[in-house]
Amino acid sequence: MADGGSNLKNPSRRKPRLNPQHDAEKHIQCKTDKAGLREVFVSSYKGQFSISIYSIPACISGVQSELQCSGCTTGLVGTSLSLTSLFVFFFFLKGRGVFASVPFSKGDFVLEYKGKLLSLDNSATNTYNSTEATFLFDFQWKGKYFCIDASLEDQSLGRLVNDEHIIPNCKMRTIAVNGMPHLCLFAIRDIMAGEEVTYNYGDSDWPWRKQVHSCPVTTPSLDEDVDSSHQSLLPSECVEPSPYNGNTVSDFASKCM
Ligand SMILES: C[S@@+](CC[C@H](N)C(=O)[O-])C[C@H]1O[C@@H](n2cnc3c(N)ncnc32)[C@H](O)[C@@H]1O
């Protein structure tokens, strides 16, 4: 019987799967995002809004139906249900997110969280507004503290991946290239085409997590996970400056070979 040229019928002719670590290194060096991912603005009502109950933070001004955070622009707009209550409902819009347009397998490299690498050793003072601060990712590497500042709108996708602390499909790990750390997302389970790429932002009490989940699921884990998190940006902290006073380290990335 003719095999029709199908790789499915002849496994030896299938393209070998790239080692995920090498795949990550290749994309870091080429400074490109992987094919098979796309940016989507999450704007429909179908599960894209979360409803949070939260005490009224100091940065909120206004009364009753027009409460609005003076510093935040990430969808932090809410309506007071009761003047006497310390609680208010907020409707959070996720904004942009990253979706897989092809399937990914458990273990695959998915994306790099690109940005400026800042170190506590560097002395320049950076200040961020509340929106920019949501793109700062703190992590430890070789016993030192670093931060990836992804606040610049650079068209990269890693900075647009949203938080999911119960059933994330990716986990952040550090990958060293040319002696410098890079933050990369790897799939911790199979990801279907059409699924949103997510990871756990860390242990902060993020306001959008206040929604009720009826079916908690245990999160699978990988070794060598990075001990890291986005900087906490609770409404009451939204004008706090970044603790990082670092110079930009921008010359570590290799040119595409
Ligand atoms: C690093 S940015 C992610 C990209 C962002 N969605 C955007 O459009 O720029 C982090 C911000 O996304 C939003 N976000 C992330 N995960 C979310 C979630 N699960 N629910 C609601 N908003 C989320 C919050 O506004 C958060 O401050």
From TrEMBL:
InterPro entries reported in the protein's UniProt record: KMT5A (IPR051760), SET_dom (IPR001214), SET_dom_sf (IPR046341)
Protein source organism: Takifugu rubripes (Japanese pufferfish)
Signal peptide: none
Gene Ontology terms: cellular component: nucleus; polytene chromosome
Pfam families the record matches: SET
GO molecular function, one term: histone H4K20 methyltransferase activity
Coiled coil: none
Occurrences of domain SET (ranges): 85-202
GO annotation terms (biological process): regulation of DNA damage response, signal transduction by p53 class mediator; regulation of transcription by RNA polymerase II
Stretch list, region Disordered: 1-26
Protein name: SET domain-containing protein
